[in-house]
Known about the structure:
Layout: H1 2-9, E1 12-24, E2 27-33, E3 45-51, E4 57-63, E5 72-78, H2 86-91, E6 98-105, E7 121-126, H3 130-143, E8 149-157, H4 164-169, H5 171-174, E9 176-183, H6 197-203, E10 212-218, H7 219-231, E11 239-244
Organism: Thermocatellispora tengchongensis
Pfam family, one: NAD_binding_1
GO molecular function: 2 iron, 2 sulfur cluster binding; oxidoreductase activity
Amino acid sequence: MARATVLGRLTWRVATVAALRQETPNARTIVLDVPGWPGHVAGQHVDVRLTAPDGYSAQRSYSIASAADGARVELTVELVPDGEVSPYLVEVLEVGDRIDIRGPVGGWFVWDPARADATPVQLVAGGSGIVPLMAMIRTRAAAGSTAPFRLLYSVREHSAMLYAAELETHAEAVTPTYVYTRKAPGGHPRPAGRIDAGLVRAAAWPPDRRPLCFVCGPTGFVEAAADLLVAAGHDPALIRTERFGPTGGPA
Length: 251
């Protein structure tokens, strides 16, 4: 039975685009109907494959953004200039189109409310690294979980922030702290800059609470953020990372 389940997740499925939502000028969410979808855990990803009429194909991995509570799968894709896959997904794909997906994939960078207890959860996102963490936030809400969450989200400027309005609806539950690296909006309490040791001490769960930490974003961001958490006293064994970029994985 277990082997059949694993093999099923490695099977390519034809997914139909049910809806599209523009998240920022350069990113949109793709809502997919996936017949036979086996379900997923927040934090997992899928492989997406596009095939041209001449038979050439390209594939990329994308984190699942939706809560783990249904047959639909949502992917939020940010445009990568000169990319092979993201320009088509962000600028060309239309409702009713079909794409191939495979998954869900991943078992380490996941948060499952059915297995969670009162352990605090610290989410740290850089740019589109918020996508799998948003799945965790949505799953927490959908499951009615009371696990204490905090979110530290670094983004270039407010216009590049994914899920800005929705995050505000979760503000009481996840205590978000926003960091703007290039341009901070007027009235923001912190000038533009990167996450630093002082901010980690002020905004993240203290190490003595032993939170489970999820860090996702570009490789350099993830390495720096994980180092800051360790320097602040967090147990490295409780820090889970997912990175993307030229040498990274899904986002």
